[in-house]
């Protein structure tokens, strides 16, 4: 499955309890078709004490959500948008560029 969402992209959630929230993608999981978004889909997890976390206990963390439930937010126009693809050059290398369907910005 090919995903047009990458780590560091700003996205908006389209469905679920966090609908309308925007956040930065912390991790993209293309094989599973999921993304982990900052501040979205917070779950509680019990953690045993270990070297980093001496105390242990219950920790809040972000869970993965399906990539189809988020839309990319264009860095130029600031609107959520679908992503198009176009062949082009970036830093002297031929590559497939992502383009905003609303304003045409290439990124």
UniProtKB/TrEMBL annotation:
Transmembrane segments: none
Keyword Cytoplasm in record: no
One function term, GO molecular function aspect: rRNA binding
The entry's keywords: Ribonucleoprotein, Ribosomal protein, RNA-binding, rRNA-binding
Positions of the KOW domain: 4-31
One CC-aspect GO term: ribosome
Keyword Ribonucleoprotein: yes
Listed GO biological process terms: translation
Pfam families in the record: KOW, ribosomal_L24
Signal peptide extent: none
InterPro entries (UniProt xref): KOW, Rib_uL2_dom2, Ribosomal_uL24, Ribosomal_uL24_C, Ribosomal_uL24_CS, Ribosomal_uL24_KOW, Translation_prot_SH3-like_sf
Gene3D superfamilies found in the cross-reference section: 2.30.30.30
Chain's role: One of two assembly initiator proteins, it binds directly to the 5'-end of the 23S rRNA, where it nucleates assembly of the 50S subunit. One of the proteins that surrounds the polypeptide exit tunnel on the outside of the subunit.
Subunit structure, as described in the record: Part of the 50S ribosomal subunit.
Family statement: Belongs to the universal ribosomal protein uL24 family.
Descriptive protein name: Large ribosomal subunit protein uL24
Organism: Collinsella tanakaei YIT 12063
Recorded name of the encoding gene: rplX
């Amino acid at each position: 499955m090919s995903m047009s969402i990458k780590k560091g992209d700003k996205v908006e959630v389209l469905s679920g309890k966090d609908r309308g929230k925007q956040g930065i993608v912390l991790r993209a999981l293309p094989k599973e078709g999921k993304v982990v978004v900052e501040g979205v889909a917070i779950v509680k997890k019990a953690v045993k004490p270990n070297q980093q976390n001496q105390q242990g206990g219950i920790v809040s963390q972000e869970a993965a959500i399906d990539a189809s439930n988020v839309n990319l937010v264009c860095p130029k126009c600031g609107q959520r948008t679908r992503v198009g693809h176009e062949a082009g050059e970036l830093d002297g290398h031929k590559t497939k560029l992502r383009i905003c369907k609303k304003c045409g910005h290439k990124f």
